[in-house]
Specification:
By secondary structure, the protein is α/β, with parallel strands linked by helices. 40% of the residues lie in helices and 16% in strands. Strands 3-2-1-4-5-6-11 form a 7-stranded parallel β-sheet, with helices on both faces. Strand 2, helix 2 and strand 3 form a beta-alpha-beta unit. Helix 5 packs parallel to helix 6. Bound molecules: nicotinamide-adenine-dinucleotide (NAD). Nicotinamide-adenine-dinucleotide binds next to helix 1, strand 2, helix 5 and strand 5.
Length: 324
């Protein structure tokens, strides 16, 4: 039985990975310090004998060493997300996203882990205007968060070259879906707007809404992580992959589609006004991935287009978070 360590397991993406790994009969160890994750996200797994949880911080090397003991594969998700958070507090973002990442690499190396798969980010494309984004052509980072994610890729590459650790970096593009946190100052746009519309509040778009994103449903991200640990194509290792759909939607259109889907549950939502605020610092105007490399090397085939995923996400939020 293969043993996988998922860091950041109480978070959005981590908890979805744990769920799928347990369904597929993997043994799973999970690590999280609950800084942005929730106990309720791991509660359903606690009764599974193949699941164990370590509460701890990746900034502590000893914790990372303990978590990596006996592990075959690592899915490293623990980090402080959000561009604005990193602009407000670059030191903490760096401590967790770079210092914690390095601890995990060292622990993976010391414990003979077979493969280290980690959450990279589309923010690494920075100021590059090229569309679609192709893995080898990146620009300069536009935020401290983007710096941390770029440094992750550089460290992963160096750990392969110097210690022979096999790694795969997955550059996630605006992931959304069940369990993504709608609350707090740093909530992502989709869950934030869903909750506001459900509460009959007007969402505020930063800028005129023409910025676009390759919004990626969680099931596509889970698929990429599984392909990354399961592939026996050695040529696919020690590289980074766009993890996306290969299509883009403007923020304005996304908001209109959200209103349409939510109106099926509550017709009053279709009349809620959308407001506009200033553009946010550090935001990349357009984001669209080429997914050719993932298709060719890993056999990736997104299961959900944006609209299919959004529909499922809206249904989940309505069932789980609607207070009306
Ligand atoms: N959601 C996206 O659109 C997106 C896009 C690009 C990259 N990513 C990356 O994907 C990963 C997962 O993101 P998410 O959206 O699930 O966020 P999330 O905040 O829901 O999950 C992150 C988890 O990591 C944990 N964590 C944070 N600091 C920790 C520490 N010091 N020690 C132990 N655990 C810690 C948090 O408690 C949380 O449970 C992150 O690395 C993020 O940067 C996400």
């Amino acid at each position: 039985m293969k043993h996988v360590l998922v860091t950041g397991a109480a978070g959005f993406i981590g908890s979805n990975l744990v769920e799928r790994l347990l369904e597929l009969n993997y043994k799973v160890t999970a690590l999280d310090n609950f800084v942005t994750g929730y106990q309720k996200n791991i509660d359903p797994f606690l009764s599974n004998p193949r699941f164990s949880f370590i509460e701890g911080d990746i900034r502590d090397l000893e914790t990372c060493q303990k978590a990596c003991n006996g592990i075959d594969f690592i899915l490293h998700e623990a980090a402080l997300g959000s561009v604005p958070r990193s602009i407000n507090d670059p030191i903490t973002s760096n401590d967790v996203n770079v210092g914690g990442f390095l601890n995990m690499l060292v622990a993976a190396r010391d414990n003979g882990v077979k493969r280290f798969v980690y959450a990279a980010s589309s923010s690494t494309y920075g100021d590059s205007k090229a569309l679609p984004k192709v893995e080898d052509n990146i620009g300069k980072p536009l935020s401290p968060y983007a710096v941390t994610k770029l440094v992750n890729e550089i460290y992963a590459d160096v750990f392969h070259k110097t210690y022979g650790l096999d790694t795969i970096g997955l550059r996630y593009f605006n992931v959304f879906g069940r369990r993504q946190d709608p609350n707090g100052a740093y909530a992502a746009v989709i869950p934030k707007f869903v909750i506001q519309l459900m509460n009959h509040e007007s969402p505020t778009i930063n800028g005129d809404g023409t910025f676009s994103r390759d919004f990626t449903y969680i099931d596509n991200v889970v698929q990429m992580n599984l392909l990354a640990i399961e592939t026996d194509n050695h040529g696919a290792l020690n590289q980074v992959y766009n993890t996306a759909v290969g299509d883009r939607t403007t923020i304005k259109d996304m908001t209109e589609i959200l209103k349409e889907y939510l109106s099926a549950f509550d017709p009053a939502i279709k009349d809620i006004e959308i407001l506009h605020g200033p553009t946010r610092k550090g935001d990349v105007p357009h984001s669209l991935a080429s997914i050719e490399k993932a298709r060719q090397n890993l056999g990736y085939q997104p299961s959900h287009e944006f609209r299919d995923g959004l529909k499922e996400a809206v249904e989940w939020y309505w069932e789980n978070l609607n207070k009306n």
